[in-house]
Design brief:
By secondary structure, the protein is an alpha+beta fold. It has one domain (3-214): q2cbj1_9rhob like domain (Jelly Rolls, Sandwich). The chain has 6 helices and 15 strands. It has a 6-stranded antiparallel sheet with strand order 1-11-8-13-3-2. It has a 4-stranded antiparallel sheet with strand order 4-12-9-10. The longest helix has 12 residues, at 17-28. The radius of gyration is 17 Å and the shape is globular.
Length: 222
């Protein structure tokens, strides 16, 4: 499936079961029981090494059209103890190295000492996320749902997102353990609450074509 057209594609069996086990063992030491996820994992040596693994770099290159640089990693850990619903939305916030006096960037905030701002379309179009499935994603454990092609509409208001959800095809993304889903941040997506005790743990690593988006505008590595 062409990411330029659909906004996402999947690759199966990228990581082995033993690699998933090793990652989970490492990540369990970095997270607290019951937490829904953990931000800013690029400082974790195992995660950083995986982000620079040639298999992931090749997938990022396929999506971006040029070699990608990993800059942010997040663990999403949905389970019976940490179960949540994510409404339809786009991912528009990026971590930045410093504050900008630029009207294109707004809604500034800090998350665990990392500076964030909502980014313009031109910046987000240079980013792809690789969602590494450490558990199989099934119809019962709160899988990702997407609106194929919705990333081409640009940065949308909440009302426009609602209109797209009402009028577009919705697709559920079921990915086996060790598989990867690559997606554009502006792809409208959501996930429901899990109806199963089976965990759904996803390591979400984002890549850009460069850390330097423009002179004076640099992504933070988080």
């Amino acid at each position: 499936m062409d990411i330029l057209d659909s906004g996402y594609f999947t690759e199966s069996a990228v990581l082995s079961g033993s690699e998933c086990d090793t990652l989970l063992g490492t990540l369990e030491k970095s997270t607290k029981s019951g937490r829904a996820g953990t931000r800013h994992l690029m400082s974790n040596d195992v995660v950083n090494k995986l982000a620079h693994d040639e298999r992931l770099l090749q997938i990022a290159k396929e999506a971006l059209g040029v070699p990608g640089v990993p800059f942010r990693a997040t663990l999403f850990a949905k389970s019976g103890d940490a179960n949540w619903l994510i409404p339809w939305h786009q991912d528009t916030a990026l971590p930045l190295a410093k504050h900008l006096d630029d009207p294109e960037w707004g809604s500034w905030s800090r998350k665990e000492a990392v500076l964030y701002a909502h980014a313009p379309e031109w910046a987000l179009s240079r980013v792809v996320a690789l969602r590494i499935h450490l558990d199989s994603s099934t119809s019962e454990n709160g899988p990702l749902r997407v609106l194929p092609g919705s990333h081409r509409a640009g940065v949308l208001t909440d009302e426009s997102v609602h209109d797209h959800v009402t009028n577009r095809e919705q697709l559920t993304c079921l990915v086996e353990r060790g598989g990867i889903l690559a997606m554009r941040p502006l792809l409208i997506h959501s996930s429901s609450k899990s109806k199963s005790d089976q965990p759904r743990r996803v390591l979400h690593i984002e890549y850009s074509d460069s850390l330097d988006l423009k002179p004076g505008i640099r992504l933070a590595v988080a």
